[in-house]
Specification:
about 65% helix; two-stranded antiparallel ribbon; mainly alpha; 4 strands
């Protein structure tokens, strides 16, 4: 009987290794696919067309900037030439030299600047605490506050001044025997009309709200407040020393927008019978045309100068002074 030769067993370790290698190669190569019998079908990717990068010439950018600059600068240059060029006499700076001596110039300018300062203070005192409280305590009220602050954009100034005039006429007639009669007279003082401050505060609310809302969105207010309160800081300290330094740019933007609105507002002040800077410019335009244009040019320069100062204040680094250290209170007695 012939001896039977044992048949070698299949290599169990080699098969998984080969299959693993095949699978790894197929996975590593995205263009390889495995067929029914384990054979790989390599497909070459189609050749890609070379990308053509279109370089945007800087000439168009310079042309757009030049047109935008000309749109703003050419009217100012034309106004300046009108104020200094007198036909038949040549160049004369008489329109500018007579400004300081003109009747009502200094008084109207100081009145407008005072009204602007009071309006900025009132609008910020009204908007900052409300927006911070909404941001921290009740975010669901934000749409309500936004609608209320945006409402002056819907109401035209002529309708607002009509309502103010009606109230000012109704008050002294029906409240002449009450202490409020003196209040109605005080808010209409020609030297400093507080009624204009109240009206300008309402008109400036949309711009103040947008500027402060953008600043609050850029700052993590709840985290800052929680960190300051956990260190023992009081609420006035949190607002004055923690939040306001981080809102410096937003406050500067709101102040500048309010300043520009007050310096250029004419309708309400004219219909109420007061004479701030804008009303004074219109009042002298008939008799002194060159002087009125010169005042307009100077008012633009003053506004730009104040814009630079406010932007400088808004971009200055915020410094937070350390407050007094407080130790947390413990309920138990020290051992």
């Amino acid at each position: 009987m012939a001896a039977m030769t044992p048949t070698p067993a299949p290599n169990d370790e080699a098969a998984p290794t080969a299959s693993n290698a095949t699978a790894a190669t197929a996975a590593a190569s995205p263009t390889a696919t495995v067929g029914r019998h384990g054979e790989r079908d390599r497909r070459e990717p189609p050749p890609r067309a070379p990308r053509r990068f279109r370089s945007r010439p800087r000439v168009w950018r310079g042309a757009v900037l030049a047109l935008a600059g000309a749109y703003f600068v050419l009217p100012l240059l034309a106004s300046f030439v009108f104020t200094v060029h007198v036909p038949g006499q040549g160049i004369s700076l008489e329109a500018y030299t007579q400004l300081l001596a003109a009747e009502g110039f200094t008084k109207s300018l100081l009145l407008s600047l005072g009204l602007a300062a009071a309006t900025i203070t009132a609008s910020l005192l009204l908007a900052v605490p409300a927006l911070v409280a909404v941001r921290i305590g009740s975010p669901r009220l934000r749409p309500v506050v936004e609608v209320m602050c945006m409402m002056p954009l819907v109401v035209p100034p002529i309708a607002l001044v009509t309502g103010i005039t009606t109230v000012l006429r109704w008050g002294p007639e029906h409240l002449s025997r009450t202490p409020l009669y003196q209040t109605f007279l005080a808010v209409q003082n020609p030297d400093f009309p507080l009624v204009l401050v109240l009206a300008y505060t309402v008109l400036a609310l949309p711009f103040v709200y947008r500027s402060l809302d953008a600043g609050l969105r850029a700052v993590d207010v709840p985290t800052l407040v929680e960190a300051a309160r956990s260190c023992g800081a009081s609420w006035p300290y949190v607002v004055l020393r923690v939040l306001l330094p981080n809102l410096r740019a937003a406050l500067a933007g709101a102040a500048f927008l309010t300043l520009a609105l007050v310096l250029g507002e004419f309708t309400i002040a004219s219909l109420l019978g007061f004479q701030p800077f804008a009303v004074w410019i219109v009042s002298i335009s008939g008799a002194h045309a060159r002087m009125s244009v010169a005042v307009s040019v100077l008012s633009l320069l003053i506004t730009w100068l104040l814009l630079l100062l406010l932007s400088r204040a808004g971009t200055a680094p915020a410094t937070v002074s350390p407050g007094p250290s407080r130790t947390p209170r413990t309920s138990g007695k020290e051992s």
